Amino acid sequence: MRVELTKFRVKEGKSKRVDAWIEYMHENMDDVLMNLEGERMYVESIFREKFNNVEYLYWYSVQEDQMRGTDEVNNQKIDEKHLEFFDECIDKTFRPEDMTAACVMIPSRIRSAMESR
Which domain of life is it from (predicted)? Predict the structure, then answer.
């Protein structure tokens, strides 16, 4: 099981587009969740932070350690929209920061349920 947390900086003036991006995901949650299944992603969360007038997004995920074949069909429209928002809103001059998981706490019954699918 792989647990990740990565920090991205939002381009200046793109907070409203990030709002639209998040809203898009909420409005299309069924398709988003279907994509997560295809990616063997158990949990994915996006956090927002504003610090010194700069906005950051943090991606937190728990996923299968090794990708298997994609037996589920991914929704290409969701992927394309996600990449469109990402390219428009994420500042590529800022190197994403990967945090180190110092301690992963997932009860065995939850871990077993995730891995049994």
Answer: Bacteria
Count how many domains the chain has.
1
Cβ(74)–Cβ(38) under 8 Å? yes
Give this prediction's pTM.
0.85
3 state DSSP class of 28: coil
- Which of residues 74 and 86 earns the better pLDDT score? 86
Give the β-pairing of 97-98 and 2-9. antiparallel
Which CATH number characterizes residue 107's domain?
A: 3.30.70
Range of the domain at 100: 2-115
H helices within the chain, ranges in order?
Answer: 15-27, 29-38, 76-89, 108-115
